[in-house]
């Protein structure tokens, strides 16, 4: 079946808006140009109630070190960087992804190691749960996604990726406040959380690609 788009602007040009105040002070990693669609390939994670309880504990504790932290509202594990596609590239890009990912089966990961990240230009800091098991399968997926990106002469994923699910973020490079003592305390919360070993064992069932306001799904077998 054809991928279903989420409700949005039907115009094939993305709406232009660079007002950082409208999205928490976040800054674009590349300038917007009409006809360019920000595109990202990822594994979506649907949070259960217990996971949200753990998230609340972690964020409330981390805010004693960085009060400006905001909890993530949608969760995912990235398989690509955010890249720019021209509108007329979207259909062949998605078709190539579908062909390359068709043979992959569902698999499990364990994401239970708290880690602090910054984006490449140091404008945002993140707290995430790093994958401690399932790394090999993720690298296989990234290899196929990278192959598609190379077809379109786009940047591939990081050479030695730290696969993770982001939990919270803030504007600026505040990693120094969150690493060390805070990070150790957050890991203790994860390790001591009831049923955390079961809770943080994630089964991936589909891959998604978001391009502008369009979403495409690739179910794993």
Automatic annotation (TrEMBL):
<keyword id="KW-0539">Nucleus</keyword>
<feature type="compositionally biased region" description="Acidic residues">
    <location>
        <begin position="8"/>
        <end position="17"/>
    </location>
</feature>
<dbReference type="Pfam" id="PF09749">
    <property type="entry name" value="HVSL"/>
</dbReference>
<keyword id="KW-0378">Hydrolase</keyword>
<dbReference type="GO" id="GO:0000175">
    <property type="term" value="F:3'-5'-RNA exonuclease activity"/>
</dbReference>
<protein>
    <recommendedName>
        <fullName>U6 snRNA phosphodiesterase 1</fullName>
    </recommendedName>
</protein>
<dbReference type="InterPro" id="IPR009097">
    <property type="entry name" value="Cyclic_Pdiesterase"/>
</dbReference>
<dbReference type="GO" id="GO:0016829">
    <property type="term" value="F:lyase activity"/>
</dbReference>
<keyword id="KW-0540">Nuclease</keyword>
<dbReference type="GO" id="GO:0005634">
    <property type="term" value="C:nucleus"/>
</dbReference>
<comment type="function">
    <text>3'-5' RNA exonuclease that trims the 3' end of oligo(U) and oligo(A) tracts of the pre-U6 small nuclear RNA (snRNA) molecule, leading to the formation of a mature U6 snRNA 3' end-terminated with a 2',3'-cyclic phosphate. Participates in the U6 snRNA 3' end processing that prevents U6 snRNA degradation. In addition also removes uridines from the 3' end of U6atac snRNA and possibly the vault RNA VTRNA1-1.</text>
</comment>
<feature type="region of interest" description="Disordered">
    <location>
        <begin position="1"/>
        <end position="28"/>
    </location>
</feature>
<dbReference type="InterPro" id="IPR027521">
    <property type="entry name" value="Usb1"/>
</dbReference>
<keyword id="KW-0456">Lyase</keyword>
<dbReference type="GO" id="GO:0034477">
    <property type="term" value="P:U6 snRNA 3'-end processing"/>
</dbReference>
């Amino acid at each position: 079946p054809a991928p279903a788009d989420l409700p949005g602007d039907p115009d094939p040009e993305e709406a232009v808006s660079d007002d950082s105040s409208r999205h928490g002070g976040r800054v674009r990693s590349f300038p917007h140009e009409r006809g360019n669609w920000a595109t990202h390939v990822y594994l979506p994670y649907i949070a259960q109630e217990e996971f949200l309880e753990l998230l609340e504990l972690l964020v409330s504790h981390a805010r004693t070190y960085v009060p400006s932290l905001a909890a993530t509202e949608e969760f995912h594990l990235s398989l690509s960087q955010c890249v720019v596609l021209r509108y007329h590239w979207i259909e062949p890009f998605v078709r190539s992804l579908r062909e390359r990912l068709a043979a992959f089966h569902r698999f499990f990961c364990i994401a239970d190691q708290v880690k602090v990240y910054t984006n490449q230009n140091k404008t945002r800091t993140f707290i995430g749960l790093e994958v401690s098991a399932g790394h090999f399968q993720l690298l296989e997926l990234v290899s196929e996604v990278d192959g598609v990106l190379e077809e379109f002469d786009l940047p591939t994923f990081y050479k030695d990726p730290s696969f993770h699910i982001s939990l919270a973020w803030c504007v600026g490079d505040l990693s120094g406040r969150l690493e060390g003592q805070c990070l150790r305390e957050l890991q203790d919360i994860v390790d001591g959380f009831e049923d955390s070993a079961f809770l943080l064992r994630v089964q991936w069932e589909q891959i998604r690609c978001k391009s502008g306001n369009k979403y495409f799904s690739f179910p794993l077998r």
